[in-house]
Amino acid sequence: MKQLVAASLLVAGLTGLPAAAQDASSPPSCETMDHRSDFDFWIGEWNVYAPNGQLAGHNSIRLSQGDCLIEEHWSGAGGTSGFSMNFYDPLIGQWRQVWMSSGAYIDYTGGLNEDGAMFLEGEIYYHQNGTRFPFRGLWTPNDDGSVTQHFTQYDPEHDRWNDWFTGRYVRQENDPNTPSGE
Asked: What is the domain range of residue 81?
């Protein structure tokens, strides 16, 4: 009986915390948070092209959770998929992306560089063999409204950074190659 009472008190206490922490008169939002809109240039529905012009896949980037979170939903032309959560972390004062796919996990942080591009660095972990390496991502907004995404992975054996992926994001509504209905 004591365990039941303790569990009931715990549940009551936990369910009361969110209500007490939020002002019921207005919905939660991150609109006033510094740096919240730094990565907004990436929001949209995109066709992603490899440097050779081949379609690499489609990416849907959208705001959620009171505009506090940017969700990425990747669908590769070869059948791959992935998801990332992107947010400004006020606890560390940086942007953070956590990416998950069946092949790899990436966790990195950073912010806008002097050119207005989002630069993140951290680590990639490969599920299949358990290896991990330093990893960098750079998202550069272009004058034509496209975004260039460039990833590099550190090669400790040769002490250099190697290209991992480069893609040019073209908004689907501006891409003449977008099939109707997308």
From this structure: 40-174
